[in-house]
Each structure stands twice: as structure tokens, then as C-alpha cells.
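--- STAGE predict ---
source: upstream dedup step, 1 unique chain passed
mode: sequence only
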Amino acid sequence: MSKRGTSPPGDGQLVKRARSNTPPRTQLVISSSGDDRQKGLVRTVKRTSNLEAPIISLSGAHSAEILSCRFDPTGQNIAACSADRSVSLWRTFSPNTNYGLLSSLHKAPILDLHWSLYSPTLYTVSADHVLGFTDVTTGQRVRKIRAHRGIINALDRTMAGGAGIELVATGSDDGSVRVWEGDVEGSKQSVAVWELGCPVTGVCWSADGQHVYVAALDNEIHVRILLSFSCFKKPLLRHWKR
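--- STAGE serialize ---
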């Protein structure tokens, strides 16, 4: 008697499927072993971004410590600055191209940077005491200001209320915070100065552009208020209040 072949399952018939060893892409797993069967499910994560993976390494551009990195206002690009005196430019999303390396902007380590809010300009500050303006479409520095007497540790930028002018605040080891016009054709003279008396380690504008928060080595966070933008040039000095 010949054996009968297995007939295909009909409609409505239950079929036992083989267990897959590969966890779903939306599950977060952890294991000290390379065997997928030893991995324990921690929780299910719904991916909401267009990144290629939850953790991405952008490496190979710098030869020394990376001291700061920032997204541009659109979130499509990333800039990073390094102690090797260069700035690298990256695409945020796959394939995460390193499309630029700017290596002649400063003569000392670049400590902080920010993208302009309205123009293709990148602001950088360095241990060479210089605030630099770079056109990211050409990679050329279009303006530089010897902004401080010491190392510049931090900067931030904001739009100045109804004046429609971008302001850049810088903080330095010389113990001062200075505010500059962000326009490439702007003055090389600061529009506001605040002498703190000890090295400044960080500066940050408020969302409305009327307050600047300053961190320093005196273990305090200081707040300054810009009360008026109607008299923007030298009269602004009178509105730089504690």
C-alpha cells in the first residue's frame, strides 16, 4: 500500500507555524550573549522617527575631542566642532553623509557653534578669542570678530524681538558676556557688554529673545533682561540691566 501524501490545509484549518528566532523590529531586547534565543524582551518601542536606527554613530571626521554639536533649524543637518580646529557637517538622515569638513576657520580649538536662525551662516567661537561667521553653502568664513580678551567658551543666538535682527551672545574666560549683531554686514563693535568678574562657561537666550542666562565659575546662574530694541545701537547699552 502506498502512503498518501499530506493534503494542503483547507480553509479554516489551523496551521502551526515555526517559531522565529528574530525579534520584531519594534522590540527592544537585551542580552550578554550573541544568541538571539537568549535575549530577553524589555519592552515594545514604536519607532516614530526616520532615522535608520535608534542609535547612530557619526564617526571618522575628527582627530580630537568633539566639543559641541548642533542641529540646524530644519533638523536636516548637524554641525560638530572639535579640538582639532575643524567643523564637520552631516546629514541627519540616512545615509548620514559627512558632506563637509571646514578646517581653516580658527587657529585654536573650536569650543562652541550655532546655526543662524534665518541665513546659511554658522557661528563659531574658539580659544583664539575669535567669533567667526561661515557661509555653509561655500564653506568660506565671511566675517570674524576678535570678540574677547580670553578664550571664548560659549555662544547662543536669537532674533531680537520686533527689530528683526539676529543677536549673538558670547561668554569668555575674560569674565565678560558680549552681544553682537548677527548680520554679516553688522558692526564689529558689541552692542552690549556685561562684566561678570569670573570666567563665563555658558550663555543661553530665552525663547522670546529678551533674557540671556549666564553660567559662570561663581556657581551662580545670572539673568539679564533686554528691555528695549527700539534704540538698537549704542543706546541699547542703557537697557542691559540686571
